[in-house]
Specification:
9 helices; single chain; 15 strands; Aminopeptidase; GNAT_dom; about 25% helix; alpha+beta; 2 domains; seven-stranded mixed beta sheet
Length: about 400
């Protein structure tokens, strides 16, 4: 009976003119905790492909049975750093430069796999993944990866058990609420907003060898959803208090500095926590009222997460020096204040577990995911290993670059 129903299933490209309602119904049926517990609902604001449409190449597939949409999957392709090699310059038979340069690969990302609860355990998920991977291969992707919660056993079992993926990286998702009061930023630190060209120069010079760094970083920084790139330096480090550009800065940087960029997810999707008791809602509202009435107390109020809220996502976090963690905390405070002015409920980021700057990123454990899980698969064997070898077997670095276009 199951095989007969599978024969009736059609997998095709998403059609925005007729599929939006059906896709939204499947999304609602797949809400986390829909059995009466706390659930996180995502409102895609009427655009089912909003989470991939800013990528260089993207596709959404839907599974249809008897004219009813019963599943979907999204995927995108980009070129990223998968490792580094040493570029040697030789002059008069002497090596004068041993500079690490990025090694790029074309990688695909799977997200938003959803199967209607009434059509699970029929092989639909596997079929959708396989057809998406066919599109990846046709477009030259060398690897495919996906991200899920480490405790999402069904998803992990599908990808690692049936689809041939292997566990790869375990970054941390850090979420901090936006309070009713402004966060005080140290007056010993100067925060500079960089222009997109300045930000691109800084990222390519200092972070291009970071794993998953997108080769088209310029497209990310110039996107309308990018709020800006911000640099934190000691207050007295700028000559005459003037910014002379990233090229000048990098030629003689201060001992400690940090940088990050901000992506406006609020205009892409909204989140909402559902299933909370009246007591929890009342408590959260009370903390906000008290915080707003007495901002000088700096009380940690609970944001209005029980109605639709937006978030700012911080990416491209980096820096160096003994005070880098403190400067990162200042940058996060600055982003908090920007998010507050924009009406966001939370500020979030995702970093490698071993990220040195992690200590400087404010977050609430109750809102954060201690460990996300990324799984990866090599899509073919008919290409050169190059200087990296098989990326799926490589050791993790200290940092990772999370592309905001895939949040």
């Amino acid at each position: 009976m199951g095989e007969d129903r599978m024969d009736m299933m059609v997998v095709r490209e998403f059609d925005p003119s007729r599929d939006v309602v059906g896709v939204e119904e499947v999304e609602r049926s797949c809400e986390v905790g829909s059995s009466g517990k706390l659930s996180l609902f995502t409102d895609l604001l009427g655009d089912p492909i909003c989470r991939v449409r800013n990528s260089p190449a993207f596709l959404m597939l839907v599974a249809e049975m008897g004219g009813e949409i019963v599943g979907m999957i999204r995927g995108c392709i980009k070129t990223v750093t998968c490792g580094e090699r040493i570029s040697r310059r030789v002059k008069n038979n002497y090596s004068i430069s041993n500079k690490p340069v990025p090694v790029y690969t074309k990688v695909a990302y799977i997200l938003g796999l959803r199967i209607s609860p009434s059509h699970r355990r029929m092989g639909l998920g596997l079929k959708l993944v396989c057809q998406m991977e066919d599109w990846f291969r046709q477009n030259g992707a060398e690897y495919s990866y996906m991200a899920t919660e480490s405790d999402n056993h069904a998803s992990v079992k599908l990808f690692t058990g049936k689809c041939g993926y292997s566990t790869f990286r375990t970054p941390s998702i850090l979420v901090n609420p936006v309070f009713a009061h402004r966060v005080t930023v140290s007056n010993r630190i100067t925060i500079i907003k960089l222009t997109p060209p300045d930000a691109e120069l800084l990222y390519r010079r200092r972070f291009a060898t970071t794993e998953f760094f997108p080769r088209d970083i310029d497209s990310v920084l110039e996107n309308k959803l990018n709020v800006g790139t911000f640099l934190a330096v000691p207050r007295d480090s700028l000559r005459f208090g003037l910014w002379a550009g990233s090229d000048h800065f990098l030629s003689d940087p201060p001992e400690s500095w940090t940088v990050l960029s901000v992506w406006n997810c609020k205009d892409v999707f909204r989140l909402e926590v559902r299933g909370a008791s009246r007591l929890k809602r009342t408590f959260a509202k009370t903390t906000r009222i008290v915080d707003k009435a007495f901002p000088f107390l700096k009380l940690p109020s609970v944001p209005a997460v029980f109605r639709p809220f937006g978030l700012f996502f911080m990416y491209g976090l980096g820096g160096e020096g003994p005070r880098a963690a403190k400067m990162m905390k200042a940058l996060c405070g600055h982003v908090h204040n920007l998010a507050r002015e924009s009406g966001c409920g939370v500020v979030a980021t995702e970093v490698a577990n071993s990220e040195p700057l992690k200590l400087g990123i404010p977050h609430w454990k109750m809102l954060s995911c201690a460990e996300d899980l990324w799984c990866i698969k090599r899509l073919g064997e008919d290409y050169s290993d190059g200087p990296v070898g098989d990326w799926t077997k490589s050791s993790p670095g200290l940092s990772i670059f999370v592309d905001p276009r895939e949040v």
